[in-house]
Amino acid sequence: MNLAPPTTRPSTLLELLAYSSSETPDALAHCYLNNGEEPSERITYRELQEAALTRAHHLTARGARGRAALLVYPTCLEFVRTWLGCAAAGVMAAPVQVPSRRQAVRRLRSIADDAGTDLVLTTRETLDRLTVDFGDMPELRGLTLLATDELSEPAPPTPPLPSPVLDDIALLQYTSGSTGAPKGVMVTHANFWHNAASVTHCGRATGGPDPGSWSRGYAACVSVVDVRSSACS
Question: Rounded to two decimals, what is the model's pTM?
Fold first, then answer.
């Protein structure tokens, strides 16, 4: 993977992550706040890259490359790890809010059918709750639910991971579907690069420090996806 500074050309999310991991490995990549105040989960760029690659190899070993996968997570770092793992493995990630009622399970199945996938990635806690609360629903039948927070390290041997290009799909963003069938929008790596570039440019224009600006831009991209995923209901 090219570790050249991404200021010279458009770069994929994985290149931005690799660059940040190489240049500032111990810098904070992401942090969640309990109740918006108390820091809870933290992860550095090096830890995030290692976790993403581990998940990418596991997904590749399961034959997920080139397929879509639903990402059903509460607000947590595991969502970020897995979404980037999907990007590294060539898996199209479709974030879906954790269902809390039966209609939301039907929506989840509609999205899976529209995306042409039976693969649902989530945490062990969420998987168990879905099984207990909605295990009797036919919409869950035929779906493969995988708890990514239980994937072991090291990952199983796999062929080399693909090198994403800017036109590759980084995300499948679905509408709420409140007035009809959910509709998906394909978001490419190029879309996220332009977002990161905008954040970096604004930081320089306002006199912000240059070192680490691309890391901040990258983190902003991750935060945007996380907000989108939790906002979709």
Answer: 0.82
